[in-house]
């Protein structure tokens, strides 16, 4: 950046002279790849080792805020759900081998947590290592069976997911890997954040996505691109259970804040009715605004802009921004996590929040 002053001292001191976050609008028609992003330590290591594949040394925590109904896969399923998958998808069970699946079915639910998690990692690792032809055969067997059963009964949401994904990505291991992940359905206004080393995929819908500025991705399926199986299987946390869904905290009548446990960003949603206005007070870091609906005015440092759907604006650090509308206006604002700006000396602790 040629004029790093606009980022503010705290940000430049902590992250250097580039904007630490990116803000995007995503419209997902066809499912995106199952992927995970390495943590900072691993990202640094991978970048050194394979700079062509891993483009930078940064981590990439991300957050999706649903604009429409939005479906995603995020994190590994619980042990109970894993039992259910093994029982209802015999083709899958056959593929990953009885050696791994048997202990799950006999495990004591009250004291078996550690053992169950490692079983899940064994199953995932085994699945990702199976040859493509074997995956193809298992998938066609599975698809044939479900298609037949579809004529005589309602399919479960997992069965429907398998059919849909297989149409989009024939013979792809990701169709089966998806069975091991939580299927999450967000309503408009819900937020989902994804920490380092957690598997995820966006399946369909529209969302605002905010992330740390990085390109590092390790893919796990639903992709024609390279899958680094060894890195993938060793980096994942194998944490099981549903992810946290953020609902946003109201700051006033018009603005809700979504704060993920990451330092680089937080996102405000602002919905204004006719004649309403809101003020975003000056902060020590930069902000990026994107208007997604309606039209109105934005006033900053005595400069007034007429804005409408699709407008994107940058506000330097220490700039107060006023927004108003005569009709209606909906926008999102991304900025650095407030806790870092308020308490830059203790930001290392943020990772453990
Ligand atoms: Zn991602």
TrEMBL record:
The entry's keywords: Isomerase, Metal-binding, Zinc
UniProt enzyme class: isomerase
**Span of domain Phosphomannose isomerase type I helical insertion:** 106-181
Q: Which residues form the Phosphomannose isomerase type I catalytic domain?
A: 7-76
One GO biological process this protein is involved in is: carbohydrate metabolic process
EC numbers = 5.3.1.8
Domain Phosphomannose isomerase type I C-terminal residue range list: 258-302
In this protein, the active site sits at 219
One GO MF term on file is: mannose-6-phosphate isomerase activity
**The reaction(s) this protein catalyses:** D-mannose 6-phosphate = D-fructose 6-phosphate
InterPro entries (UniProt xref): Man6P_Isoase-1 (IPR001250), Mannose-6-P_Isomerase (IPR016305), Pmannose_isomerase-type1_CS (IPR018050), PMI_typeI_C (IPR046456), PMI_typeI_cat (IPR046457), PMI_typeI_hel (IPR046458), RmlC-like_jellyroll (IPR014710), RmlC_Cupin_sf (IPR011051)
Q: Where does Zn(2+) bind?
A: 35, 37, 62, 200
Gene Ontology CC annotation, any one = cytosol
Textual note on the cofactor: Binds 1 zinc ion per subunit.
Say which domain of life the source belongs to.
Eukaryota
Q: Name one Pfam family in it.
A: PMI_typeI_hel
Q: Which cofactor does it need?
A: Zn(2+)
Known pathway: Nucleotide-sugar biosynthesis; GDP-alpha-D-mannose biosynthesis; alpha-D-mannose 1-phosphate from D-fructose 6-phosphate: step 1/2
Which SUPFAM superfamilies has this protein been placed in? RmlC-like cupins (SSF51182)
- PANTHER family noted in UniProt: MANNOSE-6-PHOSPHATE ISOMERASE
Family as reported in the entry's similarity comment: Belongs to the mannose-6-phosphate isomerase type 1 family.
Q: What is this protein called?
A: Mannose-6-phosphate isomerase
């Amino acid at each position: 950046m040629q004029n790093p002053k606009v980022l503010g001292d705290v940000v430049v001191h902590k992250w250097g002279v580039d904007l630490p976050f990116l803000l995007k609008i995503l419209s997902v028609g066809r499912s995106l790849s199952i992927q995970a992003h390495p943590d900072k330590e691993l990202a640094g290591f991978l970048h050194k080792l394979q700079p062509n594949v891993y483009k930078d040394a940064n981590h990439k925590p991300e957050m999706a805020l649903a604009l429409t109904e939005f479906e995603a896969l995020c994190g590994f399923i619980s042990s109970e759900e894993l039992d259910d998958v093994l029982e209802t998808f015999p083709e899958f069970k056959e593929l990953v081998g009885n050696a791994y699946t048997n202990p799950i079915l006999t495990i004591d639910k009250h004291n078996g947590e550690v053992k169950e998690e490692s079983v899940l990692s064994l199953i995932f690792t085994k699945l990702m290592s199976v040859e493509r032809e074997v995956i193809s055969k298992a998938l066609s067997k599975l698809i044939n069976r479900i298609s037949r059963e579809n004529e005589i009964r309602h399919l479960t949401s997992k069965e429907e997911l398998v059919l849909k994904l297989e149409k989009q990505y024939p013979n792809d291991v990701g169709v089966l890997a998806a069975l091991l992940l939580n299927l999450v359905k967000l309503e408009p206004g819900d937020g989902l954040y994804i920490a380092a080393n957690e598997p995820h995929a966006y399946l369909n819908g529209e969302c605002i996505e905010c992330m740390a500025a990085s390109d590092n991705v390790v893919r796990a399926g639903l992709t024609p691109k390279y899958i680094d199986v060894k890195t993938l299987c060793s980096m994942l946390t194998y944490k099981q259970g549903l992810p946290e869904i953020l609902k946003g905290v109201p700051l006033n009548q018009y603005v809700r804040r979504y704060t993920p446990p990451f330092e680089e960003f937080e996102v405000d949603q602002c919905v204004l009715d006719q004649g309403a206005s809101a003020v975003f007070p000056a902060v020590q870091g930069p902000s990026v605004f994107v208007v997604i609906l309606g039209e109105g005015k934005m006033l900053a440092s005595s400069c007034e802009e007429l804005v409408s759907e699709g407008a994107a604006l940058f506000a330097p650090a220490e700039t107060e921004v006023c927004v108003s509308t005569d009709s209606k206006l909906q926008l999102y604002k991304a900025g650095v996590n407030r806790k870092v700006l308020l308490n830059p000396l203790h930001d290392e602790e943020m990772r453990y929040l």
